[in-house]
Amino acid sequence: MVTRYDKRLQDEDLWQVYEISSDRVIVIAGHPYEGMAQHEAAEIVALLESGDLRPDEIAETPLPTESASQHANPAGTIAAATDPVPSDKS
Fold first, then answer.
1. Where does the pLDDT of residue 57 fall: very low under 50, low under 70, confident under 90, or very high at 90 and above?
2. d(CA 85, CA 3)
3. Any idea what DSSP says for residue 81?
4. Which residues contact 9 (CB under 8 A, 6 or more apart)?
5. Is 40 in contact with 16 (CB distance < 8 Å)?
6. pLDDT tens figures, 69-84
C-alpha cells in the first residue's frame, strides 16, 4: 500500500497532517488539520490511509500559459521604466 499522508512538526509540540505528493496540509470540512497534538495527527493519518476519512478536494489553480499572457498583452512587450510617460500638457 502506498503511503499518501503523513504528519510533520509545525511548531513546538504542534503537528499538521499533509498529503505527501502535494506537500499541502489536509483540509477536511473546510478546516486545515494543523496545530494538533502528535497523537491526534497520527490518528488522522491512520484514518486517511485506511480510507475511513477523506480530505476535501482542492481545485488546482492552473498556472498562466504563454498564450494566456499574450492575450493580456498582445504585443508581448513590457513597458520599460525608461519609456516616456504621456503628459496631459497639450
1. confident
2. 57
3. T
4. 15
5. no
6. 555 555 555 555 555 6
> Which sign does the torsion angle of CA 70, 72, 74, 75 carry?
negative
**CA gap 42, 56 in Å, rounded:** 19
Q: What is the domain range of residue 20?
A: 5-50
With vertex at residue 11, the alpha carbon angle to CA 46 and CA 43, rounded to the nearest 5 degrees, is 10
Q: Tally the domains of the chain.
A: 1
- To which residue does cell 473546510 refer? 30
**What is the rounded CA–CA span in Å between residue 76 and residue 79?**
10
Determine how many CB atoms are found less than 10 A away from the CB of residue 10: 16
In a domain, 33, yes or no: yes
The answer to whether residue 29 sits within a structural domain is yes
Task: Tell me whether residue 37 is in a domain.
Answer: yes
Cell numbers that stand for 88 in this block: 496631459
